[in-house]
Protein backbone atom coordinates (compact mmCIF):
# COMPACT_ATOMS: atom_id res chain seq x y z
CA UNK A 1 0.00 0.00 0.00
CA UNK A 2 1.24 3.46 -0.81
CA UNK A 3 -0.27 6.84 0.11
CA UNK A 4 0.93 10.24 -1.02
CA UNK A 5 0.25 13.64 0.54
CA UNK A 6 1.36 16.89 -1.00
CA UNK A 7 1.23 20.09 1.04
CA UNK A 8 2.17 23.75 0.68
CA UNK A 9 4.57 25.72 2.89
CA UNK A 10 1.88 26.85 5.32
CA UNK A 11 2.08 25.69 8.94
CA UNK A 12 -1.70 25.16 9.01
CA UNK A 13 -1.04 22.19 6.73
CA UNK A 14 -0.10 20.32 9.91
CA UNK A 15 -3.85 19.78 10.37
CA UNK A 16 -3.98 18.16 6.92
CA UNK A 17 -1.08 15.94 7.97
CA UNK A 18 -2.84 14.84 11.18
CA UNK A 19 -5.98 13.94 9.27
CA UNK A 20 -3.95 12.03 6.67
CA UNK A 21 -2.26 9.99 9.41
CA UNK A 22 -5.56 9.19 11.09
CA UNK A 23 -6.92 7.89 7.80
CA UNK A 24 -3.81 5.80 7.15
CA UNK A 25 -3.93 4.49 10.72
CA UNK A 26 -7.56 3.41 10.30
CA UNK A 27 -6.87 1.78 6.98
CA UNK A 28 -3.85 -0.17 8.18
CA UNK A 29 -5.25 -0.86 11.64
CA UNK A 30 -2.30 0.82 13.37
CA UNK A 31 -2.39 1.27 17.17
CA UNK A 32 -3.28 4.75 18.53
CA UNK A 33 0.21 4.89 20.08
CA UNK A 34 1.92 4.30 16.76
CA UNK A 35 -0.29 6.83 14.97
CA UNK A 36 0.57 9.38 17.67
CA UNK A 37 4.29 8.67 17.30
CA UNK A 38 4.11 9.03 13.51
CA UNK A 39 2.29 12.32 14.04
CA UNK A 40 5.01 13.52 16.46
CA UNK A 41 7.79 12.59 14.07
CA UNK A 42 6.15 14.07 10.99
CA UNK A 43 5.10 17.25 12.76
CA UNK A 44 8.78 17.83 13.58
CA UNK A 45 10.13 17.02 10.14
CA UNK A 46 7.41 18.79 8.16
CA UNK A 47 7.34 21.96 10.29
CA UNK A 48 11.13 22.22 9.88
CA UNK A 49 10.68 22.22 6.11
CA UNK A 50 7.75 24.66 6.23
CA UNK A 51 9.60 27.09 8.51
CA UNK A 52 13.10 26.95 7.04
CA UNK A 53 13.30 25.44 3.54
CA UNK A 54 11.64 28.19 1.51
CA UNK A 55 11.69 32.00 1.45
CA UNK A 56 9.15 33.23 4.01
CA UNK A 57 7.01 35.41 1.73
CA UNK A 58 6.64 32.92 -1.13
CA UNK A 59 3.77 30.43 -1.30
CA UNK A 60 5.02 27.11 -2.62
CA UNK A 61 2.06 24.90 -3.52
CA UNK A 62 3.94 21.62 -3.68
CA UNK A 63 6.40 22.33 -0.88
CA UNK A 64 6.52 18.88 0.71
CA UNK A 65 5.60 15.51 -0.73
CA UNK A 66 5.07 12.75 1.79
CA UNK A 67 5.07 9.19 0.54
CA UNK A 68 4.07 6.49 2.98
CA UNK A 69 4.62 2.90 1.95
CA UNK A 70 3.57 -0.12 3.96
CA UNK A 71 5.25 -3.40 3.11
CA UNK A 72 4.58 -6.40 5.32
CA UNK A 73 5.78 -5.33 8.75
CA UNK A 74 7.51 -2.11 7.82
CA UNK A 75 6.43 1.47 7.24
CA UNK A 76 8.59 3.57 4.99
CA UNK A 77 8.03 7.30 5.04
CA UNK A 78 9.77 9.61 2.60
CA UNK A 79 9.64 13.40 2.75
CA UNK A 80 10.73 15.26 -0.34
CA UNK A 81 11.14 19.00 -0.68
CA UNK A 82 12.93 21.31 -3.09
CA UNK A 83 14.01 23.94 -0.57
CA UNK A 84 17.51 24.79 0.65
CA UNK A 85 19.75 21.81 1.43
CA UNK A 86 19.34 20.70 5.02
CA UNK A 87 20.42 17.45 6.64
CA UNK A 88 18.41 16.99 9.87
CA UNK A 89 20.42 13.90 10.79
CA UNK A 90 23.50 16.09 11.43
CA UNK A 91 21.96 17.77 14.45
CA UNK A 92 23.39 16.81 17.83
CA UNK A 93 21.24 15.16 20.49
CA UNK A 94 20.30 17.23 23.54
CA UNK A 95 21.98 16.49 26.88
CA UNK A 96 19.28 14.62 28.83
CA UNK A 97 21.21 14.80 32.10
CA UNK A 98 20.71 18.56 32.49
CA UNK A 99 18.22 19.99 35.01
CA UNK A 100 15.14 21.98 33.93
CA UNK A 101 17.01 25.22 34.61
CA UNK A 102 19.94 24.14 32.45
CA UNK A 103 18.02 22.53 29.59
CA UNK A 104 17.91 24.80 26.55
CA UNK A 105 14.48 25.58 25.09
CA UNK A 106 14.11 23.63 21.88
CA UNK A 107 16.37 21.22 19.99
CA UNK A 108 14.14 18.23 20.67
CA UNK A 109 12.68 17.65 17.23
CA UNK A 110 15.26 15.50 15.49
CA UNK A 111 16.00 13.71 18.74
CA UNK A 112 12.35 12.64 18.97
CA UNK A 113 12.51 11.42 15.38
CA UNK A 114 15.61 9.32 16.10
CA UNK A 115 14.04 7.90 19.24
CA UNK A 116 10.74 6.96 17.65
CA UNK A 117 11.87 5.60 14.28
CA UNK A 118 14.07 2.59 13.55
CA UNK A 119 16.07 4.10 10.73
CA UNK A 120 16.53 7.68 9.54
CA UNK A 121 18.45 8.71 6.43
CA UNK A 122 19.00 11.87 4.44
CA UNK A 123 20.27 12.51 0.97
CA UNK A 124 20.36 15.43 -1.42
CA UNK A 125 19.26 14.47 -4.90
CA UNK A 126 19.52 17.21 -7.52
CA UNK A 127 17.77 20.20 -5.97
CA UNK A 128 15.71 18.06 -3.58
CA UNK A 129 16.05 16.99 0.03
CA UNK A 130 15.02 13.39 0.63
CA UNK A 131 14.44 12.44 4.23
CA UNK A 132 13.52 8.82 4.77
CA UNK A 133 12.32 7.10 7.92
CA UNK A 134 11.60 3.45 8.59
CA UNK A 135 9.48 1.96 11.31
CA UNK A 136 8.88 -1.72 11.97
CA UNK A 137 5.30 -2.45 12.89
CA UNK A 138 4.80 -4.90 15.69
CA UNK A 139 1.31 -6.24 16.23
CA UNK B 1 -7.07 22.54 22.17
CA UNK B 2 -8.95 24.14 25.05
CA UNK B 3 -7.46 25.83 28.05
CA UNK B 4 -9.12 27.00 31.26
CA UNK B 5 -7.31 28.86 34.04
CA UNK B 6 -8.84 29.13 37.51
CA UNK B 7 -7.63 30.34 40.87
CA UNK B 8 -8.26 27.69 43.53
CA UNK B 9 -7.15 28.78 46.98
CA UNK B 10 -3.48 29.68 46.68
CA UNK B 11 -3.05 27.60 43.51
CA UNK B 12 -3.76 28.34 39.88
CA UNK B 13 -5.35 25.39 38.13
CA UNK B 14 -4.73 25.16 34.38
CA UNK B 15 -6.62 22.56 32.41
CA UNK B 16 -5.33 21.88 28.92
CA UNK B 17 -7.50 19.58 26.80
CA UNK B 18 -6.81 18.20 23.34
CA UNK B 19 -3.68 18.68 21.27
CA UNK B 20 -0.60 20.72 22.11
CA UNK B 21 1.10 20.92 18.72
CA UNK B 22 3.07 23.56 16.81
CA UNK B 23 -0.16 25.40 15.97
CA UNK B 24 -2.16 25.24 19.20
CA UNK B 25 0.72 25.70 21.65
CA UNK B 26 1.07 29.33 20.53
CA UNK B 27 -2.45 30.10 21.78
CA UNK B 28 -1.78 28.18 24.96
CA UNK B 29 1.40 30.16 25.61
CA UNK B 30 -0.43 33.46 25.07
CA UNK B 31 -2.91 32.55 27.80
CA UNK B 32 -0.26 31.35 30.24
CA UNK B 33 2.24 34.20 29.82
CA UNK B 34 0.25 36.72 32.00
CA UNK B 35 0.75 34.35 34.96
CA UNK B 36 4.43 35.34 35.08
CA UNK B 37 3.41 38.78 36.31
CA UNK B 38 2.34 37.30 39.66
CA UNK B 39 4.82 36.67 42.45
CA UNK B 40 5.43 33.01 43.35
CA UNK B 41 2.74 31.37 41.19
CA UNK B 42 1.76 27.88 42.30
CA UNK B 43 0.50 26.08 39.20
CA UNK B 44 -1.32 22.78 38.85
CA UNK B 45 -1.73 21.62 35.27
CA UNK B 46 -4.58 19.17 34.75
CA UNK B 47 -3.36 16.95 31.89
CA UNK B 48 -6.14 14.35 32.11
CA UNK B 49 -7.67 15.37 28.79
CA UNK B 50 -4.43 16.13 27.02
CA UNK B 51 -4.28 13.86 23.97
CA UNK B 52 -1.09 14.88 22.15
CA UNK B 53 2.08 16.83 23.01
CA UNK B 54 4.66 17.56 20.32
CA UNK B 55 8.06 19.15 20.95
CA UNK B 56 6.33 22.56 20.80
CA UNK B 57 4.16 21.50 23.75
CA UNK B 58 7.16 20.08 25.64
CA UNK B 59 8.92 23.36 25.13
CA UNK B 60 6.02 25.25 26.77
CA UNK B 61 6.08 22.87 29.75
CA UNK B 62 9.80 23.58 30.12
CA UNK B 63 9.08 27.32 30.02
CA UNK B 64 6.49 26.83 32.79
CA UNK B 65 9.03 24.93 34.88
CA UNK B 66 11.74 27.55 34.40
CA UNK B 67 9.39 30.47 35.12
CA UNK B 68 7.82 28.99 38.26
CA UNK B 69 11.29 28.11 39.61
CA UNK B 70 12.57 31.59 38.85
CA UNK B 71 9.56 33.21 40.53
CA UNK B 72 9.89 30.85 43.52
CA UNK B 73 6.50 29.28 42.81
CA UNK B 74 5.77 25.65 41.99
CA UNK B 75 4.47 23.44 39.20
CA UNK B 76 2.61 20.13 39.39
CA UNK B 77 1.36 18.11 36.43
CA UNK B 78 -1.59 15.91 37.31
CA UNK B 79 -3.51 13.11 35.60
CA UNK B 80 -1.29 12.71 32.56
CA UNK B 81 -2.25 9.78 30.31
CA UNK B 82 0.42 7.05 29.91
CA UNK B 83 0.75 7.63 26.16
CA UNK B 84 1.66 11.29 26.73
CA UNK B 85 3.91 10.40 29.67
CA UNK B 86 5.91 8.23 27.25
CA UNK B 87 6.69 11.29 25.10
CA UNK B 88 7.93 13.09 28.23
CA UNK B 89 10.10 10.14 29.26
CA UNK B 90 11.53 9.65 25.79
CA UNK B 91 12.93 13.18 25.78
CA UNK B 92 14.20 13.05 29.35
CA UNK B 93 11.42 15.44 30.37
CA UNK B 94 9.71 12.96 32.69
CA UNK B 95 12.24 13.55 35.48
CA UNK B 96 12.13 17.34 35.17
CA UNK B 97 8.56 17.64 36.44
CA UNK B 98 6.62 16.91 39.56
CA UNK B 99 3.91 14.52 38.32
CA UNK B 100 0.96 13.11 40.20
The total count of strands of chain A amounts to 5
Question: What is the average of the pLDDT values of chain A?
Answer: 93
N-to-C span of chain B = 22 Å
* Quaternary form: heterodimer
Sketch the major β-sheet of chain B: 6 strands, mixed
Compute the number of helices of chain A.
3
* CATH architecture field of chain B: 2-Layer Sandwich
Structure overview:
Chain A is α+β, with helices and mostly antiparallel strands and 139 residues long. Chain A has a single domain (2-136), classed as Heat Shock Protein 90 (2-Layer Sandwich), CATH 3.30.565.10. Chain A contains three helices and five strands; from the N terminus they run βααββαββ. Chain A has a five-stranded antiparallel beta sheet with strand order 1-2-3-5-4, with helices on one face. In chain A, a hairpin with a 2-residue loop joins strand 4 and strand 5 (128-136). Chain A starts with a strand and ends with a strand. With 100 residues, chain B is an alpha/beta fold. Chain B has a single domain (2-99), classed as Transcription Regulator spoIIAA, CATH 3.30.750.24. In chain B, strands 1, 2, 3, 4, 5 and 6 form a six-stranded mixed beta sheet that branches. The mean pLDDT of chain B is 96.
Amino acid sequence: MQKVLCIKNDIHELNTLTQFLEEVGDELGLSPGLVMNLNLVLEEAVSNIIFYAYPKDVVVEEAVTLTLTCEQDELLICLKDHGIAFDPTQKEDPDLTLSAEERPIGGLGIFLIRQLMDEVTYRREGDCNLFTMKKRITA
Amino acid sequence: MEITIQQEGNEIRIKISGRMDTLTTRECEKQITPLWEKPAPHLVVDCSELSYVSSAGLRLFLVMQKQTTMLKGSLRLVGMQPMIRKTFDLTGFGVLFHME
